[in-house]
Amino acid sequence: MSFFEFLAGNWTDVLEATLAHAVLVLEALGLAVLVGVPLAFLTYRTTAPRAAVLGAAGIFLTIPSYALFGLLIAPLGLGRGPSVLALTLYALLPVIRNTVVGLRELDPAVIESARAMGMGRLRMLATVELPLAWPVLLTGLRVAAQLLLGIAAIAAAVNGPGLGNLILDGLATAGTPFAIYLTIEGAAGIVVLAVVFDLLFAAVNRLTTPRGFGA
Amino acid sequence: MHDMTHGTTDERTAIRLDRIRKSYPGQTRAAVEDLSLEIPEGRIVVFVGPSGCGKTTTMKLINRLIEPTSGRIHLDGTDVTEMPAHQLRRRIGYAIQQTGLFPHRTVADNIATVPKMLGWNKARVTARVDELLQLVGLEPGTFRARYPKQLSGGQQQRVGVARALGGDPQVLLMDEPFGAIDPLNREALQNEFLRIQSQVRKTIVFVTHDIDEAVRMGDRIALFSQGGRVAQYDTPENILAEPADGYVADFIGAGASVRRLSLLLLGELAVPDWPVIGQSADDAEVAAAAARCARDRLLVLDADRRPTSWVPLFGPDRERGEKLPVQGSMGPRDSLFDALDHMLSTNTSVVAVVDEEGRHRGALEMDSVRSLINTAGRREPSGPPQEV
Ligand SMILES: Nc1ncnc2c1ncn2[C@@H]1O[C@H](COP(=O)(O)OP(=O)(O)O)[C@@H](O)[C@H]1O
Ligand SMILES: [Mg+2]
Questions:
Q1: B188 CA distance to ligand 1 middle (Å)
Q2: Would the pLDDT of B386 be above 70?
Q3: So what CATH class is B13-253?
Q4: pLDDT, tens digit, for every residue of B81-91?
Q5: In chain B, where do the E strands start and end?
Q6: What is the pTM of this model?
Q7: B243, B266, B320, B344: which is deepest, by most CB within 10 A?
Q8: CATH tag, B267-376
């Protein structure tokens, strides 16, 4: 049986796992934005707190993924919970760092003018700072998404959803005739998702960047 | 302070700084040490001085972008030192050299920033944007929807001024607004800004390090020295004519007498008369007129008394019997500087002076320019900004 004959037999499983994989990554990305952007905003003008936040987010990235997923089983049990949380922690550094960089790179004259016109802190954030930092923030999300797509395969080790399950099944049945096909399906699904995400981010970037900006 | 010696009774004070002090953390010497200053309503007051002497700091104390370490700030007689800063700032326009325009917003949206915050309705905001674009000389249809990056430096600066005027503030703060513009366009912008001011009559604080710009723009000049000290506060004329001390004289520099010339407008001076003849005068009449005067040429006027040409009485030109063209005459808005410049650049010894309608008033020679400089002397603080 060739690979394609094999795929024809279980393509619904592959599709399901691929969708679950994408959802898992998007959930983690969303959580990372909800936590990371406010943290970045609160600390970007400071020195010590900013360094502390970036340092902490950096430490998560250095923990081997198997270890981090495993460590979270104790408080959160198996399945979706530890998977989403672990991925969120990995996404924090790119999200926070790019938001901080984006905010710090804003033209001080623009910020000063906004203050001088009587804008309050929140209005300035919503109408000036975030829109202007958006392209850099978006790049952070793109990097984070690519990172998470790969790491999310580990979720299967803690009974989480996604393409990792195919890869894991392949490993578990190594030596049997079709084990390698399962692994290939899992890996290929991740590569396809990576390409799709990249195209989506490029489209979002084009649609949300004001005309006068890049030109 | 010098200003107190002049008649300021008819002027209302718009901004009063009362014993202001500002020291930045970690500085041994305060940026502004102990400054009291009154800024009259509807005038342009220029803060001028060398870099680092505290002009920008003083200006930003007015809209409290920088909070004073001590001292009080009064606006229109009200102490605003403690009122919520955002409310104060919506009443004070702000324009800076770097423009600070929002790059992600159109020209119209930039200008609409303060009106929208003030809660104006849509129709009023739109009308205001178009009115301001027109005021700063940008065709609304062409520029409304552009982004700042799609404008030249001068156009960006105009939009910056329009945005500063957005909410119709009483006060305008400007920090070296034309400093990044090339000299030719800068002069055009300066003149245009004076025209705008003649219409809007705001109280303006204008910061520059360029004494020429200060003389051109200011109704008053506050000349700063280190530590936010005001070495002299007076009209440009008086500062150029009578520098308060050696520091002021040094800062004004060697060109002070020439700079003063540009403040002496022909319309305000007694221009000496000049012998004239009609266009149809024959040789006998020319000879008779020549006999009555000791000049080397007569001015020929047309039926409306407008200068048309010169008739030379001596020298090689006379022998050829030719009339010489007038080559441009000086009007009431031209200054002694312009008259002198005209003589030097056209290599003539005399220039015709006319009134508003272009009719004969007289003529100036090098000698008469010199005696006018001497008699013009000190003048009272200038009146309201001139219509152009
Ligand atoms: N944010 C700041 N922190 C510390 N020192 C400052 C700050 N801004 C200005 N200064 C200092 O205050 C003095 C006055 O500065 P400034 O008002 O900008 O002068 P000017 O506008 O006349 O060039 C300078 O010595 C400058 O170095
Ligand atoms: Mg300055």
A1: 30
A2: no
A3: alpha beta
A4: 999 999 999 99
A5: 13-22, 32-40, 44-48, 70-75, 78-79, 92-96, 171-175, 203-208, 220-225, 229-234, 276-278, 297-301, 307-312, 324-325, 350-354, 360-365
A6: 0.77
A7: B266
A8: 3.10.580.10
